[in-house]
Hints:
Elements (H helix, E strand, L loop, with lengths): L2 E3 L4 E4 L5 E16 L5 E16 L1 H8 L5 H5 L2 E3 L2 E2 L3 E4 L8 E5 L5 E6 L1
Parallel strand pairs: 1-3, 2-3, 3-4, 4-5, 4-7
Antiparallel strand pairs: 5-6, 7-8, 8-9
Amino acid sequence: MKNVNLVGGNINLEGSGQPINVVDKLSGEGQITTNSLDNHGTIGDDKTSNLTVNGTKEVTDAIASGNAELQDLADVVKSNEKSAADSVTSDANDIIGGYSAEVDGNGKVVAKTVL
């Protein structure tokens, strides 16, 4: 894809190893949902105003069991070698209500919350 404007939309990355490549620009606000931390998106120019990367129950399970971190979820979508997310969330699993965190301007997860 060359240019994508989310306009409040949602991009779903289902399966494992699903790539998304936005060559020029990703803009607007919206969500990218993934059910695997092996899915990856690359953005040429991040012009999003509010991008959330959301993990499904499978991602929550991986984080809760210590096999992954919220930073891994944030890094599913990158621009210029850092996370393009403004926030990360994950769906509830059988034990917890999910996770939520903000991502700073350097692409690092801060202010983590267990829901």
